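Sorry, I am new here, but would you mind making up a protein's amino acid sequence and the C-alpha cells describing how it folds?
***
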Amino acid sequence: MGLVVQKYGGSSVADAEGIKRVAKRIVEAKKNGHQVVVVVSAMGDTTDELIDLAEQVSPMPAGREFDMLLTAGERISMALLAMAIKNLGHEAQSFTGSQAGVITDSVHNKARIIDVTPGRIRTALDEGNIAIVAGFQGVSQDKKDITTLGRGGSDTTAVALAAALDAEVCEIYTDVDGVFTADPRVVPKAKKIDWIAFEDMLELAASGSKVLLHRCVEYARRYNIPIHVRSSFSGLQGTWVSSEPKQGVQQVEQAIISGVAHDTSEAKITVVGVPDKPGEAAVIFRTISDAQVNIDMIVQNVSAASTGLTDISFTLPKAEGRKAIDALEKNKDGIGFESLRYDDQIGKISLVGAGMKTNPGVTADFFTALSDAGVNIELISTSEIRISVVTRADDVNEAVRAVHTAFGLDSDSDEAVVYGGTGR
C-alpha cells in the first residue's frame, strides 16, 4: 500500500463530532496499510469569523498580521484532529504549513507555493505516525513570515504535498459526493461525474465550480497527481480527476459536455472613452496588473468613427473591484479615458466540455437555451472547450437550469445530496 494524502474541508470538521468521524476514516486508511498525510481546513465558519473580527478591530489590517490571525483556524483543527486520532489508539503529529515545509512567495493573503520540503513529514511517516498538516498556509522564502494561500488554499496545500511526497492519490473530502454536472444547490437533478480530465476540471474550476480550487487542479495536472473528490459524510465512490480514466471507473466515451458552472462573485468594469490607438489596452491592463488584480473576461467595442474612442470592459473578483478602480483613477491622465463604470450585479455561466471542439451545434444550442429562458447576454468569452457568458446576477440560476436541461445533463435518479451546505 502506498502513501495517501487526504484533505478535509471546514464542513467536514465543523464540530467535535465531525472531527471524531474524520479521525475514524483516517485511522481506517492507516489500518488498510497506507501511510497517511492529512490536510485540514479551519472548522466550519472559523475563517469568516476571524475576518469579521479583524474588520471590527481595523478596517484595513496589515497583510502580515492578517495572515497570522487567519492561520489560527487551521492550527486549531489540526491539533484537535491529532488528539482524536490518538484517542483511537494511533499516533498522530500535527504540523503548521511552515513546519511541513510549504515555502511560498511573500504576497500576503494570496501567496503562491514556490517549493515544498517535507522533511519533517517524511520523518513522522517513517516513525509510523499519521501526519496532520494545517492547510491554506506556508512561510515566505525571503522574510520567513507566515503567509496564506487565499480562500480554498487547503486544496492546493494537499496537492502540493502529494506531489512532494510522491503520493498515489490526493483525496479531497467535501460535503458532496463528488464533482457534479452543475452545482447541486442550483440544479437538484445534477449528475455525479465518475471521471473528468484535468483540462475539463480546470475550466469548470476557473468558471466558478466551487468543489475544487483552480490552482489545485493546475498543480495536480503539472505533477500528474490523481485527485479523488468524495464526501466525508458517506462511503460512496466520488469523482476521479486525472489525465486518464482510473482503472475500474466506467468511461466508455468522453461526454460532449462535462458540466455547467456559474459564478456570482465577479464584477464588471467598463473603461469609457479610450483612445483607439496601439498601446492603450496595454497601459490599462499593466495598471491593473501592478495593482495585483486578476482579470477574467475582456471585451473591446468597435470605436466610433466620429470620435476615435472605444470602450473596454473586463470582469474581475468583486473583492478586488475597489482596488482596480482606484488604480485606474490614479492613472487616468496616462490612459486618457473619459470615465469608469462599475457593475457588481453580474453573473457568469459557463458550458464546459472537450467534445464541443468537434460538435458545431453546441454553441447554437447554448445560446438558444439562454434565449428561450429570457436571459440577456452582456459579454461572451470562449476557449476550445468552454463558452462563458455574463448576464444579470438575478438570471444566473434560471440560466444554469435551462442550459443543464437543454444538454440532457439532468439525472433521472435521486437528487444530489448536499451534506454540509457550503460545498467545501
The CA atoms of residues 254 and 344 lie 36 Å apart.
